[in-house]
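Please predict the structure of the following assembly.
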Amino acid sequence: MAGATLVLAALPWVCGKYVVDLASRTMIMALFAMSLQLLVGQVGLVSFGQAAFFGVAAYAAALLSPGQAPAQLLLLLPAAVAASAGYALVAGALSLRTRGVYFIMVTLAFAQLAYTLAHDTTLAGGSDGIYINARPIISIGGRAMLDLDRPLSLYYLIWACLLLAYLALARLAASRFGHALAGIHLNEARMRAAGCETGRFKLVAFVLAAAVAGLSGVLSALKDGYVNPEVLSWHQSGRALLMVILGGAGSLRGALAGAAGLTLLEELFQSESLFGSLARHWQLPLGLAIIALVAALPRGLTGWKPREASASDPPAPGA
Amino acid sequence: MTFATFLIQCLNGLQYGLLLFLVASGLTLLFGIMGVINLAHGAFYMAGAYLAYALTPWVRETLGADFLVAVAIGVALSIAFGALLEWVFFSFLYERDHLQQVLMTSGLILVFEQVRSLLLGDQVHGVAAPQWLSGSVSLGGVMNYPVYRLFMTCISAAVVGALFWVIHRTRFGMAVRASSSDRPTAQAMGIPIRRLYRVVFAAGFALAVLAGMIAAPVSTVYPGMGDGVLILSLVVTVIGGIGSIGGTLLASLLVAMADTFGKVLVPQASGIAVYLLMTAVLVWKPEGLFRQV
């Protein structure tokens, strides 16, 4: 982990634009994947609507950016993330009333709601999307301390966000709250019997995951300078799920591995130097690869899954 | 809204609802009986539409027959292909958990879309409805309604009726209901579960293809058409309750009416009426209207 951090930090000095851009995209996706790992791996809530929170924050960042002048990053970032968290509060309160397959479908539907609003109405630029004309800055007393229109600054902002989020989420998993979530994953009824307010814990986890996804969404919008409804599509949610599963749902590291793996796989199949004109149909080998990988590696690349009590375990003393 | 307009929208809603039922019923049967979430169901619908586009000219030139024969051939082909697909791919999904099924069937969607792209291209196409079904007819002197849409409604209603009859009045339907409520006991009673699954899957596949084929003249044939239908079918399944055919029928009609009237009454917020309906139902009944699984 520490090695990867240093490598990523050193990247812009060593490699060209293409690799740096690829690394930026991968880091943003890694952040997105970690947010979903919190729900899928920690609590056991399979959400198929994580793109909603990615996209809502991205759109909020675009909508809140003034026309020509750069916005204040320290105001824009929290505001956009709060927008995602707010939507998650409403969506989560309703979605968490359902379980299992219903939960999967309901989270999908909430994401589709956001997608339809963005795509079919004029609220947010419709299918054309919105441009961010000037990336935000941090300025104190009229002097610009950090200008995100400079690619190096943006790269390190993404890097810093990923690092901080990873540390924060790892800390969370080891905390009492994290242990409560793990308990809910293993046996929610038992947790409730022990007096834990599982509904509230799940909602907090849901909103927290949405906030992290929102952070990745804002970074993505800032990097591209552009948002369009595709950031809210269920394909985006599917990609997040895929990254978590491919890497291994049981750990944060799995999410990072999955994000890196999927991004590289997509780059590989889109490469015209390898596939020539067939690269247009890159989604075909990708689809086949997805099927093969999920079938062959049900526990993902990092292969770890929290041990669940099974019938073959020796009985507890006194049972 | 005049009375004539209201009637037209009701008929549109009915037609759309029955069509949606054809697709959603496959989805709910697949989940209720085999426990598989199949996201590729929308891709099957798209395959049906493109099949209609590809078959109709060939049928007209080579066989001198019209669109309906193309539909019949298409359904026959899809039953065979559905059985094959079940044998080769879906039979491996039964033991896997829902997340893996979701991801593997999403991979299947990509495969379907790209194979279609390689074989038939990415263009938008129209399929001409047969002559004797085009134009409009006057209904009770109150208004004119397109003949083809009435035809769609009738065909869908006939299929719905046949489906209910098979499920509730035949031995096969009895086997289907038995294995959905208690698989091990059904197997112990001698029901050949694997063969049953293959038949049910092929039927669900063929229903989606049929829906795509008959919808083609009305909705045109374009690459992303599976997505919209899939999302609506999933909403229908959530509202109706997974595994319940009756619930799916009711939910299909509700969703179609909400969508149709939503688009007419509040065009700016058209697509979201369906999601508001789903939210309202879930607040009242978190497991759908008629949950059976």
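Residues 8-136+143-284 of chain B form a domain with the ABC transporter involved in vitamin B12 uptake, BtuC fold (CATH 1.10.3470). The longest strand of chain B covers residues 136-139.
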